[in-house]
Amino acid sequence: MQMNDRREHAFHALARLFAVVFGLLACAWGAATFSTFWSEISIERTAKGIVDGATFKLGSLDPLLPALDRIELSSYCRPEAVHNSTIIRLQLAEDALANAQGHLIDARLDALENAIRRSLACSPSDPFLWTVLARVDQTRRGYQPEQLTYLRLSYQLGPYEGWIAVRRNRQALAMFGRLPPDLTEDVVREFADLARSEFYADVISILTGPGWPIHDRLLASLKDVGMHQREELARELYSVGYDVAVPGIAPRAPRPW
User: Fold this and answer.
1) Structural domain includes residue 227
2) What total of structural domains would you count in the chain?
3) Helix 146-157 and helix 127-141: axis angle, to 10°?
């Protein structure tokens, strides 16, 4: 009888010990998982902010770097997570370039290119990644023929994604003279699509920037865009000092100066 009591007591003690250990492990796992979950929520929100045009103070994105490393080095393929990571890496590289942070530029571009190539291995159908790869490669090595392949893939995989199109159109027009006929048609069509989608500020920035050498051709591509969009674009162009011919829109009275 006493032997059975001791066995039962030992069994209950072991059961309690197991429950305590299991509970501690569960708490530790939950804390680690929650931390990872929270950091990825922060990355998702930051990436969305960048896409929406939010501005960030210089250095304010640096605390996200460890989380970006974890996402990019993960053994699991999570396309949305690596996509968001690349958006933030691109912003970091652009900040370093825009602020002439010579001590950071090479490191940020290295990290961005590595992130893109790892991300493409995970998500090769992401048009944004191909667009950014073309840009980074051109920034680092000047024009190379394979950049046309990257751009072509971007157009094939995401022809109508507005926020990608804004970056891609500006980039493609900067190298327009090197593009083969199929890509020049894509670029001109994309410009018209941006106007059709009422991205007026971006259309004007593109037209008066990298698109200016072929502005007549770009403006001619607007002939099939809705009348309302053409009228609004013509009004916006005039307001910033450009008297250009938008198809189907009567020219305004000459300026008094």
Assistant:
1) yes
2) 1
3) 160
What contacts 92, CB < 8 A, 6 or more positions away?
61, 62, 108, 111, 112
Best CA proximity match to 72, nearest among 128, 100, 113: 113
Distance CA 253, CA 76 (A): 62
Q: To the nearest 10°, report the CA torsion of 221, 161, 117, 52.
A: 110
Per-residue pLDDT tens over the stretch 177-188: 999 999 999 999
The whole-number pLDDT of residue 90 equals 92
- Give the pLDDT mean for 11-16: 56
For the segment 144-160, what is each residue's pLDDT rounded down to a tens digit? 999 999 999 999 999 88
pLDDT in tens, 84-97: 999 999 999 999 99
Measured at the CA of 114, the angle between CA 111 and CA 115, to 5 degrees, comes to 80
Cβ atoms of 68 and 115 within 8 Å: the answer is yes
* Domain assignment of residue 165, given as a range: 160-257
Locate tokens 């053409």: which residue? Answer: 230
